[in-house]
Amino acid sequence: MASKLTRSNGAGWAFALPGFILLFLFIILPFFFAFWFSLTNQRLISPNPTEFVGLSNYENLLGVSILTLEPERDEAGQVVRDADGAISYPRVRTITRNPDFPQYKGMREWFRWQSGENARVVVAKDVVFMKALTNTMLFVLIIVPLQGGGALGLALLINQKLRGINAFRAIYFTPVVISIVVISLLWRFIYDGDDGLLNNVLAALTFGAFEPVDWLGNTDTALGSIIVMSAWQAMGFHMVIWLSGLQTIPATLYEVAAIEGSSSWQTFRYVTWPGLRNTAVLVLIVITMQAFALFAQIDVMTNGGPLDSTQTLVFQAVERGYGKQDISGGSTISVILFFIVLLISLVQRYLTREKR
Amino acid sequence: MADVILKDIRKSFGRVEVIKGVDITIEDGEFVVFVGPSGCGKSTLLRMIAGLEDITSGTLEIGGSVVNDVQPKERGIAMVFQSYAIFPHMTVRENMAFGLTIAKASKEEKESKVQEAARILQMEDLLDRKPSQLSGGQRQRVAIGRAITRKPSVFLFDEPLSNLDAALRMDMRMEIGRLHEQLAATMIYVTHDQVEAMTLADKIVVLKDGKVMQVGKPMELYHEPANKFVAGFLGAPSMNFLEVDVQELGEGSAVVSNGALEPTTVKTRGRTFTKGGKATMGIRPQYLKLAKAGEGMLHGAVTLTERLGTETVVDVSLLSGGKVIASFDEDLILTAGERLDLTFDADQAHLFHADE
Which residue numbers delimit the ABC transporter domain (chain B) (predicted)? Predict the structure, then answer.
């Protein structure tokens, strides 16, 4: 017999209310605040009143143009080359600071490529944001297959009936329950350029032939190092999700495959993978969303450096909002991130939909 | 086409022996049913023939060669499971062609074999459906179709009808019988349902606790059960057993009686009894008849009647204690507590040792 309490709608709402208020205050309200702030010049602490500025925050972040620079020529019309034979070009600031070209005002060079004798220069209003955007995209693009695939591999390994398999399950899951901050600190030691564990191991394996690398201090390796460490950290979590998916596949299907003489690969392709469809969609979306939120590792390990090579969107949002007290700028980045994640989730859901 | 010979087959899981030395010879083209209560080892035995379980000791021959250590796919067998074990993500056509896909057969070969199997099973119009759009019986037909496309010499059925409702079960039972005539392949069929065993089998193997109780044609087992277990297992309602005293011994017969049973001469069928000793007499409910006044051989009172229209099943409590079930092939109205005198053809009674 259900008591009056459990049957009454009012009681249910009353119990849900505290949680709902918290969610409203800290999730829903800030979500809409972010939209509003991104259209103003709101600062964290400022004596001046907040003004509505329209979409100028978005323009300042997303403004990108391409300049074509012609080589500098001497009086004879010859291309001027420097001592190394490289072509000399006028400096970009001669254009971006030229009052004749107001459309390029305040832009800085992002990257350039050579096109015949000319150089094409991509200039952006906010180069740091652009780097954060591309780094985040790159991070997501690499970590989704790396972490998802690695987790699936681990799940397949620990889905066997072996003695002591629970020990392996526990070991693989351990990084998930340790704080990401602690893990980031530990990996800073591993990646250390002078006497880091990784350098020592590689040196030992190659009998000293390996030249030590400052993994986090080098623009070529910093983002890669963070990707590897991040993939490793959350792999155990997704391993458990894969494992639960694996265990829903009936054993008789594997027996059918065995009777038909299916190879390991065929069994995976025809039995395991189709059986993991829904799990795969979940893992894919969860990893993607987590990857876009990359922050703690950056904050602890590199602070976005060296030379902005590990800037990410969330790190930039926090950096601007609280570091530079530019709440409107941080909010704008958050809103852009929201639309990116929304768009990607919709695309993923469309691509992985149940085909009839 | 192949015969299957089991010689002293044993199976242990750890220290527990579940199959305790089984010898069975199955002729080419024979329909053999393994029947027994749950836990008797019949499914394990089938899975050992399929190669899904290792054989602890003994030899298994299929088609003249020992296959103890041969992979399932090399044994020339196909198996149909109780749970259908068809792939939910594949169409009926893909499911039926699964073995051929694994063997990398050509498209034309697949199509022709699938068409042939579909024709045999009368399901050509269902080939493009997904399993979720099929009924239980149709799903099991798909599983049988998958077995047919392999052209196996031995079909193995593991309780294929147990997940179907009663009406469908009868249809499918007939279909499997028809299939056996059509394909003339060796078939081994595991069930706990004695009706399936009786109707389908050329030969029944009754198993109990990992041992063969009796092997023979259905009617042999029904009329000449080798022991009390087989006698009680086959037939519904099951055979009545009465504790009796042996009063006289004759040539191939004995006179037995008890408090409710008048002295009756029963064939001993090769068993030896001692005068004055105890024995168990078995008589099937269908052989018990209502006695005319003064001709009753067995005396008791009605406790419960079940009227089934053309048949009346009566629980009779005997004067000596204990009870029997009588099944009369007419609609009778009997009141509880009413005295009942029964008679039977003593040639249809069986005499077993008391401790059997």
Answer: 4-234
Question: CA of B89, closest CA in chain A: separation in Å?
Answer: 7
- Whether residue A2 is predicted with pLDDT greater than 60 in this model: the reply is no
Facing residue for A266 by CB, picked from B52, B85, B102: B102
Q: How far apart are CA B281 and CA A310, in angstroms?
A: 90
Domain containing B76 equals 4-233
Listed residues B183, B210, B233: the one ending a domain: B233
C-beta atoms of A259 and B101 within 8 A: no
Q: Which of B199, B233, B267 lies at the terminal end of a domain, its last residue?
A: B233
Beta bridge partners of B126: none
Asked if B65 has any chain A CB less than 8 Å from its own CB, the reply is no
- Cβ A259–B51 below 8 Å, yes or no? yes
Which residues of chain B fall short of a pLDDT of 50?
Answer: none
For residue B216, the distance in angstroms to the closest alpha carbon of chain A comes to: 29
Per-residue pLDDT of A86-103, as tens digits, reads 888 888 888 878 788 877
- Name the minimum distance, in Å, from the CA of B146 to any CA of chain A: 10
Report residue A81's pLDDT band, with 50, 70 and 90 as the boundaries: confident
Question: B104 and B125, same structural domain?
Answer: yes
| B85 in reach of chain A (CB within 8 A) | yes
CA atoms of A49 and B90, how far apart (whole Å): 64
Q: Does B18 touch chain A (CB under 8 A)?
A: no
- Alpha-helix residue ranges (DSSP H) falling in chain A: 4-7, 9-23, 29-37, 56-62, 93-96, 127-158, 165-177, 180-190, 197-205, 222-246, 251-259, 264-267, 273-275, 277-292, 296-301, 313-318, 327-351
- Mutate which: A260, A267, A276, vs B, most B CBs within 10 A: A260
Q: If we measure between CA atoms, which residue out of A311, A287, A280, A285 comes closest to residue A298?
A: A311
Residue from A129, A146, A132 nearest A288 by CA: A146
The count of structural domains within chain B is 2
Q: Which of residues 41-60 of B touch A (CB under 8 A)?
A: 50-52
Phi then psi for B272, rounded to 5 degrees?
Answer: -110, 140
Nearest to B85 among A252, A270, A277 (CB): A252
Measured between alpha carbons, how far is A242 from A48 in angstroms, rounded to an integer? 53
CATH code of the domain in which B256 resides: 2.40.50.140
Residue A266 scores a pLDDT above 70 = yes
What is the enclosing helix (H) or strand (E) of B117?
helix B107-120
Angle between helix A222-246 and A180-190 (nearest 10): 130
* All structural domains of chain A: 64-124 (no CATH), 128-351 (1.10.3720.10)
Say what the pTM is. 0.78
Count CB atoms within 10 A of the CB of residue A153: 13
CATH of the domain at B51: 3.40.50.300
Å from B281 to nearest chain A CA? 44
Contact indicator for B92, B123 with CB cutoff of 8 Å: yes
B81 interface with A at CB cutoff 8 Å: yes
**Above pLDDT 70, what percent of chain B?**
100
Between A and B, how many residue pairs show a Cβ–Cβ distance under 8 A? 57
Which of B44, B49, B52 to probe by mutation at the A interface, max A CB count within 10 Å? B52
